[in-house]
Amino acid sequence: MYLIVGLGNPGKQYEATRHNMGFDTVDILVEKHHIPQSGVKCNAMYGKGSIGGEKVIVMKPLSFMNLSGGPVRDMANYFKIDPETHLIVIQDDIDLEPGQLRIRKQGSAGGHNGLKDIIQKLGTEKFLRVKIGVGAKPKGWDLADHVLGRFAPSERKIVDEAIENAADAVEKIITEGPDAAMNAYNRKNKEK
């Protein structure tokens, strides 16, 4: 069984912001694979279903981004999921161009506070991540203002495609393994 975590912030005011790429991807997975919502557990909205014949739990922490680790740890413990082999975290990444994907098997938080909290609470950096590019903050901008902001209309189409691709990448990780997903998605760059 896989635990698939979409990172984001709850509440209408955060919908469609750069920081909510994980939430948006989980929504696509839920819709595409008809995963019924199971309610709230461990301070997260979650659902149980299957992707490619594999049982999955999908979740969106309700703790706000910077405190994502507690709900992820608690859900993994509750369902007895080993984070190092069966956790997939979907996140935004300012080091990637809008629309670009990068799949990693492990690594540091890279300045992402939600990821930093997950690493701290789990006590390991060894878990899969699907990173969705949201672009670097403009010079002189506050980072929080950038990641809590919305995309320009000109970027929206490529970002929506990236969210769909991220959902497909999660499916490929589950059905064919992380290496196959990395080969398929890590070399794709944004078309200009």
SSE inventory with pairings:
Elements: E1 2-6, H1 21-32, E2 37-41, E3 44-51, E4 54-61, H2 69-78, H3 83-86, E5 87-93, E6 101-104, H4 113-122, E7 128-133, H5 143-147, H6 153-176, H7 178-185
Parallel strand pairs: 1-4, 1-5, 5-7
Antiparallel strand pairs: 2-3, 3-4, 6-7
Helix pairs in contact: 1-6, 2-4, 6-7
Radius of gyration: 15 Å
Which parts are unreliable, with pLDDT below 50 for 5 consecutive residues or more?
Answer: none
Summarize the helix and strand pattern as letters. EHEEEHHEEHEHHH
Give the integer mean of the pLDDT values.
Answer: 92
What proportion of the residues is helical, as a percent range? 25-40%
Number of helices: 7
Q: Helix/strand-derived class?
A: alpha/beta
What are its keywords?
single chain, 192 residues, seven-stranded mixed beta sheet, globular
Question: Can you walk me through this structure?
Answer:
The protein is 38% helix and 22% strand. The chain contains seven helices and seven strands, in the order βαβββααββαβααα. α1 packs across α6, α2 packs across α4 and α6 runs antiparallel to α7. The N and C termini lie far apart (38 Å).
Give a brief outline of the structure.
It contains seven helices and seven strands; from the N terminus they run βαβββααββαβααα. With 192 residues, it is α/β, with parallel strands linked by helices. A seven-stranded mixed β-sheet has the order 2-3-4-1-5-7-6, with helices on both faces.
